[in-house]
Amino acid sequence: MAKRIDVSGLTAYYGSHKAIEDISMTVEPRSVTAFIGPSGCGKSTFLRTLNRMHEVTPGGRVEGKVLLDDENLYGAGVDPVSVRRTVGMVFQRPNPFPTMSIYENVAAGIRLNGGRVRKAELDTIVEKSLKGANLWKEVKDRLNKPGAGLSGGQQQRLCIARAIAVEPQVLLMDEPCSALDPISTLAIEDLIGELKERFTIVIVTHNMQQAARVSDRTAFFNLAGVGQPGKLVEIDDTERIFSNPSVQATEDYISGRFG
Amino acid sequence: MSEVAMDQPSGAVPGARRSSSSLHQPRLPRWAPAAIAAAALAVGVGIGAGAGLSSRIQWGLLAAVLYVAGTFALATRVEGVRQAKDRLATSLVWVCFLLAVVPLVSLIWETVSRGSSVLDGGFLSHSMGGVLTIQPGGGVYHAIIGTLEQVGIATAIAAPIGLLTAIYLVEYGRGRLAKAVTFFVDVMTGIPSIVAGLFVLSFWILMLDNGYSGFAGSMALAILMMPVVVRSTEEMLKLVPNELREASLALGVPKWRTILKVVLPTAIGGIATGVMLSVARIAGESAPIVLLVFGSQLINNNPFEGAQSSLPYYIYEQWAAGNDASYDRAWAAALVLIAFVMILNLVARGIARWKAPKAGR
Question: Could you list the residue range(s) of the whole structural domain that residue A231 is in?
Fold first, then answer.
């Protein structure tokens, strides 16, 4: 199921503004990789280049290569739509579709793609995805209620269920807990631990403890100054990044001596 | 004692001495605004009647001015300047609200009271065929048919074009073309209805040599309706959060399906309201009808051939006939037209409420 991501020489622009420059890294399958770094250093931008969501933003374009196993996402003739079916994404703010029920939200990825799936089969997928997102017990009696009526933490888990329902290879998470309370955050972190058995997970976070708790490897991003492009400073095993990083800037950032 | 009272502007209320440290300040009682309004009304009517002002409107304006001035003066004296300013603003808002409501209520009152005398089943189900304008009787059926057909065709032309234009502008439009389209939509919004009518007259009837018909009127109405649909749909689509589009795209849903299945359903309530309001706007147009549909006393169910009537045209025609029986018919037809627009609005609200994104648990 899970695939390896190999990024080499990736540079992303917003119009003429260079947001991130020359990033190369490898993300191992069935592991959690965390991106940390100050605001505006391009973590989210880089994350969005991994499933070609960056080019949805007006003026967004990308140079370089992203290999998913051996296939270049930015190769000629690659359809961004099928890339996004392979590489799922969970956003910072929970965004369930307001017109749809809980059930329809989870089924959205399959139904909106026009898949002809039998009702029984869809029921199974929805139940499996909601169980996978640790939400089944809480919502199984109200699957036909609107998804927007859930609490923030539940909505975010609903969005995770929606993302894993289409069986992606990789799951990208852009600060998935930043709008949630500690208890919901814990629920999601536990979930990430379970999901990494099946998916390759990349998570952007501002919470260093969270990065230390959930991730196997951590990448530190930084930018030289305002208006400068963000760069990858280093990527290493999480333990090493948080105990004995090889770059001084990483240690400064982690210990709070930054800026 | 008098010196102390002079120092303290709020000394009017006994025992309510204000010191700078106190959080308690004298307040007017809750019923004060109502009492002041009643008093202002009484004084206004008194002055109006006493001075022999013939117009009731003058009495009302007098009362309104007295109400605002009285509230401000009393509040300044009792509560202090800051509170008085608040009361002044509140009372002005109330007066403006009433000024806005009075014409509306009087219009509906007048229409209902004058129009209901001849409005019955026969009026709704008969045309003016064989009825002289000076005779009582006759009806509005042919005009209702005309309005329904003309407005229906106009909607069938303008709503899809307007909807797709708005989708283009919000979801796809970039650069010069989008700017140009927006500009022309803005220009079209300002086209007077008579100009739209003249355009269709010269193009469809004079150049292409077609006869007068309901369809010709529909085309002019569609020209008037289109920019309104574009504008309202555009605003509604812009209100759909970008996160929803991204959520759908990130699931691997193609853009056109995202628009069709996520964006449009989320905005459908507002879009339906916009379309209904634009229908209501063109239902009352009479200038293009006079030019293009010509008007008729008879039932013509075919909108593509021959003259038709329509409600606004019928009202104009009956009023121009200038006798008691036709005046009654004009008022009754006006009532029918208002009811038609009102029903459309209610339907739009119903759709908006029914389709609105649900947040219930």
Answer: 1-88+196-248
Q: At a CB cut-off of 8 Å and minimum separation 6, what does B47 contact? A: B53, B59, B62
Q: Which DSSP symbol is given to B205?
A: I
In a domain, A47, yes or no: yes
Of the candidates A116, A150, A167, which is a domain's last residue? A167
Quick check: A12 and A49 in contact, CB under 8 A? yes
Write down the residue that tokens 């048919």 correspond to: B145
How many Å lie between the alpha carbon of B233 and the closest alpha carbon of chain A? 18
Q: Give the ipTM of the model, two decimals please.
A: 0.88
Mark yes or no for CB contact B360/A149 under 8 Å.
yes
Of the pLDDT bands very low, low, confident and very high (cuts 50, 70, 90), residue B20 is low
Structure tokens at A185: 């955050």
pLDDT tens digits, B162-195: 999 999 999 998 889 999 999 999 999 989 999 9
Instruction: Flag if B249 and A166 touch (Cβ within 8 Å).
Output: no
Helix (H) or strand (E) holding A231: strand A230-237
Neighbours of B139 (CB within 10 A): 24
Interface of A with B in 212-251 (CB under 8 A): none
DSSP codes, A37-80: --TTSSHHHHHHHTTT-GGGSTTEEEEEEEEETTEETTSTT--H
Q: Which residues of B touch A114 (CB under 8 A)?
A: 257
A142 and A160 assigned to the same domain: yes
Place of tokens 């500690």: A182
Helix (H) / strand (E) element for A222: namely strand A217-223
Regarding whether A130 and A3 lie in a shared domain, the answer is no
> Residues A39-52: what's their mean pLDDT?
90
Flag whether A191 is in a domain.
no
| Helix extents (H) in B116-240 | 121-125, 141-167, 175-189, 193-200, 214-239
How many structural domains comprise chain A? 2
d(CA B155, CA B176): 29
Q: What is the pLDDT of residues B225-248, one digit of tens each?
A: 999 999 999 999 999 999 999 999
Domains and CATH numbers, chain B: 2-13+26-115 (no CATH), 141-355 (1.10.3720.10)
Residue in A93, A148, A166 nearest the CB of B251: A166
Flag whether A185 is in a domain. Answer: no
The CATH number of whichever domain residue A60 belongs to comes to 3.40.50.300
Backbone angles phi, psi at A171, to 5 degrees: -120, 120
Residue A103 has pLDDT above 90, yes or no: yes
Closest Cα in chain B to A163: B251
- At A68, the amino acid letter reads L
Out of A112, A163, A166, the one facing B261 most closely (by C-beta) is A112
> B356 phi and psi, to 5 degrees?
-60, 145
In this structure, are A83 and A15 located in the same domain?
yes
Chain position carrying tokens 């104009």: B316
Q: What is the DSSP string of A118-151?
A: -HHHHHHHHHHHHHHTT-HHHHTT-TTSBGGGS-
Question: Which residues 52-71 of A are in CB contact (within 8 Å) with B?
Answer: 53, 56, 58
Name every chain B residue with its beta carbon within 8 A of the beta carbon of A88. Answer: 250-251
